[in-house]
Amino acid sequence: MEFTFAAGSQAGLQLTRAHRALTDQLLALEQHLDKNNLGKSAQLLLRSMRSLEDFSSKDREHLLQNNLTQGDGDTAVAEWLATSYEDLARLARGLVSPPADADKPKLSDVTEAISLALLLIGYSTKWRKISGQRPDQATPQRLHLLYKMAAKAKVEAAILNINIERRAVETTIEALYVRALLLERFASGNLSPRRLEILDSWLISWMNALWLTREPQADSPSLCIDIRNEFRGLTRYTPGERANLFLSLRPLQRQLELAVDDFHQGIIFPGWGMGISFRMEEHVAVIDFLDREFSLIANAESARNKRFAVGQGAEVKVFCGFNDIWTSALATQSSQTQSRAGNLVASHGAVMSGASIDDSPSSQSARQASLSSTGIFNAGGHGTTLAQRTPVRLFDISDSGLGLEMASEDAAQVEVDDLIAMQIETGRPCVLGVVVRKANLHRQQSMLIGVRVLSKVPLRATLEHVTESTVRHTSKGILVPGSADHGFADSVIVNDQTFKASSKLSVMIASNIFHIRLGRARHQGRGWKLAAIDVGLAL
Amino acid sequence: MMLTQPITLVVLPGTTPATANAQPRSLRESLCLPNEQLHRGALQLRNRYIATRFTRFAEPGASLSNTDEVINWARQMLDDEQSRLAMELLHLALQENPQQPKLWLFLLEQSFLNSDVVQFAELADLFLERFAGQEIVATTQPIIDAMGHDMAPQDPRYAHVRNAGEKFMLPNWSIPNSLDRDEKRQQALHRAMVEAMMSHVSR
Fold first, then answer.
1. Within this chain, do residues A237 and A327 fall inside the same structural domain, yes or no?
2. Which of B85, B115, B174, B200 should we substitute to test contact with A (largest number of A Cβ atoms within 10 Å)?
3. pLDDT tens digits, residue range B50-69?
4. Where are the domains of chain B?
5. In the structure, what pLDDT confidence band is assigned to residue B23 with cuts at 50, 70 and 90?
6. Tell me, what's the pLDDT at B94?
7. Share of chain A above pLDDT 70, in %
8. Which of A266, A408, A498, B54 is the most exposed place for a label (fewest CB within 10 A)?
9. Residue A343 has what pLDDT?
10. What pLDDT does A129 receive?
11. Please, how many CA atoms are within 13 Å of residue A429, restricted to the half-sphere of its CB?
């Protein structure tokens, strides 16, 4: 039996009768799969996947070209796509678990069925994300199980030729497994649908570099997999980590270099797929994204880059705007070390009282405590105040960024390039980030806020202007240390007035006082600038 | 809709994909891209890429030949922990106009600081070959050789270096002359920041 589908209507994207018919046919497909004839069943599933791809080609193009600026119809079609891939993936997974009394299948058929399941899980992960749904937490477990089956049959490294987007791609089960895990890892809230699509086409082109080893490479940072841990996919490897498979970063970096080299020669890498028609900004953003992710993986051993230990769905406290972050979120994250802070306030009493700093630590703590444990706090800094509304939840998280699920009413007051601080783990320091993306979620009343992390431990500082004047003047600052030991990557966030004043400043950090000047603005948003710290010019 | 072509999924013998060991182009190739050889469409795409990735260089053809501007910006990128971006900018600038000796020296110093012996040696060869007989080689070759000897003392190319074993001063080829920097103070400030951060992480 073979299923074929009529092409869908593409105007404005609506779920049509044709979409529903296809869903019905996919559901009916299960009855036609013969677990005693794995090869034939896998071919049937492959043909169905191909038909789904052909049928949905214009839908996918529309959704990605418009970056899912959704009407309800767009959202419904995106969700339908995710569900269709999930359904096919479920059927493929079912095939590779034959009943006990089934005939022993041919090895090539097992290979075919497992590879198909892995390919489909990758697609469903991607489309869940594009359609604004949370990642499926069962994904790592399913992927690990398929890989274990392949390893048991000793076919994980057998070379396959598969047809993706009408192109023959040479791959292995292992590479398909890694591609699905990388999609699961990288598909966080701060990566837009178009960029995710580009990333996937790159991963498919990099199949030959997606190799696992049994030991970490001595001279290369690695990602690792603990195949027994059903809740974890690819994570950064640090010595002592429990893991049994490793993905060296170096081949991926080399592939990225090759991709960049193509752009230098006027070729849009990889030269095929829907991404080829996207604006150059989208491709450059993917390069930036991978650069950042690879750099974080390479610096995994740094204690400061410790990964977040929370899962999706967790409630987080959120603070918006420079002033409120300085006053409330970072009330207990001073640049002065604890033992000296009290003395400093006492000895600098005159400074504090004569300055524009008006929130003492005790009053800030009291204010913070008076607010409920969830939701958005005061969004000072733009002259507006948000009333506390519904809880903000963690949508997803990676090392360099995270997604927040926020009520649409609250999200309406947050703009791209706004500063945002989040207490993700109770009792841990607030994390500072910048909003890079806003998108509707599949539920009408909520939005996804994509955040790029600036610092996992930002420091609140009081900057004193060093002038001839007898009246002392201070400004608020948030110190954002860079990871390089040379210190030239260190920054401070200040308001526009402080940046414009361009005066020499003194600041107490740990137990030392430094004279600094503000260098160039590395990033900026409404009312704030992230300025390079320069000690050389301050002398 | 009927399927128009068969779906293939073929298991092949062997365990090593043929393209597994694809390597980036050699330094000689990637630094000496002859722009003239790119057809118009490719050149337009290349320029659009450069203008998007490096917003300060909206007109790559002309501005990437401004050596001081390129050095300033590459330095800023290094300071911003974007070393890959800085290296990419230098490569692009040399592709546009390889007659910028300061950029070669910038790359050489960075290879030395990254302890990348292979890249250093390759760059040194290319630099000496391109500027052979020019004054810039006369003034810089002793320093290049000393750096090479420091990284690879067994390498016969640097065997002639005098005062081997002596610590030499870094030439600061990757720091613009105009820049006022105090590395010790900057490091001290960074250490203080890390100390303050760690006190919050461990509390």
1. no
2. B200
3. 999 998 787 887 889 999 99
4. 29-175
5. low
6. 93
7. 82
8. A408
9. 39
10. 87
11. 25
Does A85 score more than 90 pLDDT? yes
Task: Tell me which residue in B49, B81, B187 faces A483 most closely, judged by beta carbons.
Answer: B81
Which residue type, as a one-letter code, is found at position A527? G
> φ and ψ at B115, to 5 degrees?
55, 35
What pLDDT does residue A388 have?
A: 47
Say yes or no: B80 contacts chain A, CB-CB below 8 A.
Answer: yes
Domain termination residue (choose one: A301, A326, A359): A301
* Identity of residue A63: L
User: Is residue A528 a part of any domain in this protein?
Assistant: yes
pLDDT tens-place string over residues A136-185 = 889 999 999 999 999 999 999 999 998 887 788 999 999 999 999 999 88
| Same domain, residue pair A482 and A335 | yes
Give which of A365, A377, A341 is closest to A462, Cα–Cα: A341
- Four-point Cα dihedral A480, A481, A487, A491, nearest 10: -10
Mean pLDDT, rounded, for A373-392: 49
pLDDT at A312: 64
Q: With respect to residue A209, please indicate whether it lies within any of the assigned structural domains.
A: yes
Q: Look at chain A and report how many structural domains it folds into.
A: 2
C-alpha to C-alpha distance for B71 and B88, rounded to whole angstroms: 12
What is the pLDDT, as a whole number, of residue A337?
A: 75
Q: Token pair for residue A166?
A: 């009408």
Q: What is the pLDDT of residue A151?
A: 94
Same domain as A490, residue A357: yes
> Which structural domain, as residue segments, surrounds residue A126?
17-301
Band the pLDDT of B130: cuts 50, 70, 90.
very high
Helix ranges (H only) for A265-393 are 280-298, 322-324, 338-347, 349-353, 361-370
Is the domain of A59 the same as that of A186?
Answer: yes
Query: Is residue A201 located within the same domain as residue A231?
Result: yes
A172 and A31 housed in the same domain: yes
User: Is A337 within a domain?
Assistant: yes
How far apart are the C-alpha atoms of A141 and A503, rounded to whole Å?
56
Task: Single out the residue in A274, A301, A328 at which a domain terminates.
Answer: A301
**Is the per-residue pLDDT at B15 higher than 60?**
no
Judge whether A219 is closer than 8 Å to chain B, CB to CB: no
What residues in B contact A522, CB-CB < 8 Å?
80
What tokens appear for A443 in the block? 């539920």
**pLDDT category, B197, cuts 50, 70, 90?**
very high
Task: Read off the pLDDT of residues A92-132 as tens digits, 9 standing for 90 and up.
Answer: 999 887 666 767 788 889 999 999 999 999 999 999 988 88
Tell whether A12 is covered by a domain: no
Set of chain A residues whose Cβ sits within 8 Å of the Cβ of B196 = 334-337, 459, 479, 509-510
The answer on A458 and A345 residing in a single domain is yes
What is the CA angle A409-A127-A310, rounded to 5? 60
User: Is A346:A287 a contact under the CB 8 Å cutoff?
Assistant: no
Going edge to edge, which strands form the sheet with A235-236?
Answer: A235-236, A222-225, A245-248
Q: Which residue has the tokens 């030439």?
A: B171
Residues 131-170 of chain B with CB under 8 A from chain A are none
State pLDDT tens for residues A468-495: 888 889 999 999 999 888 899 999 999 9
Q: What angle do CA B51, B56, B58 make, to 5 degrees?
A: 40
Pair A147, A184 in one domain = yes
Q: Give the residue among A203, A183, A182 at the shortest CA–CA distance from A127.
A: A183
List B residues 5-64 in contact with A (Cβ-Cβ < 8 A): 5, 7-20, 22-25, 30, 33, 38-39, 41-46, 48-49, 52-53
